[in-house]
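Sample intake sheet
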Amino acid sequence: MLQKSIAVLITCHNRASQTIHCLKQLFNQRGLGHEFTLDVYVVDDNSSDGTAALIDAQFPLVNIIKGTGNLYWNRGMHLSWETAAQKGTYTWYLWLNDDTLLHENAISCMIGVERDKSIVVGATTSQYSDEITYGGFSKKHQLLVPNNSAQECSYFNGNCVLIPKIVFDKVGNLDPLFHHALGDFDYGLRAKRKGVQLLLAPIPIGSCELHTHEPKWTNKEHSIIKRLKYLYNPLSGCSPSEFFKFENRHYGIIVAILHFCTMHLRALLPYVNKLRPLSKQ
């Protein structure tokens, strides 16, 4: 029987209980069969809450990679993927956020959709409703709702994404240019440009709560200096220099310049009507 292998890629920082819960759901997968092997690579980005020790105690087969504490999502995932690719030849790579709790049939569902050369995106819902929180986007920048059949999408959130080796060989790793946000959007757009099909799984694959809050860099309660510092923080989701490079790459120099200016305008004058650019929250 032909062996099929999956490398699961995760990065985490200081949310040990959430990471452990994610791993428990991951190892509770059903329907894969004995011909599948699952190797997990977790970048612990220098957590101070004992995340690495807890993972090692409860899941000793997980490969733990120590981060610098300054990797954030995209660079942590880049390191996880780079390590996995060096250690073995896998049939698929699965991106998984540690705040995403998989349904027990999630991976088998996504593999059932995969067509050798396609990326499969898993949509998530809130635990408290049927609202779609993350997943694949249409050409009009709207989240697609699973409809029991595979739908083509234009780009995607990186919460749960299945990437076959043939796509990795063609597109490569996440771009470490991006610190926290935008790496997932960039990867999908780069893949699509190379002729890779992006497919949304037919049903939601798990749950993940939306991270919705007013950006600190637009909050008038903070001083101008603080708002500008928040804007340039990797967690802002709109780091101006990275966002400029992202939009210049995919949407052209005019859009990039426009949003570079409006970001700073919104930070300086938070009363201005918001012109919100595309960003990972």
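Comment: The chain has two domains: 4-207, 216-268. The chain has nine helices and 14 strands.
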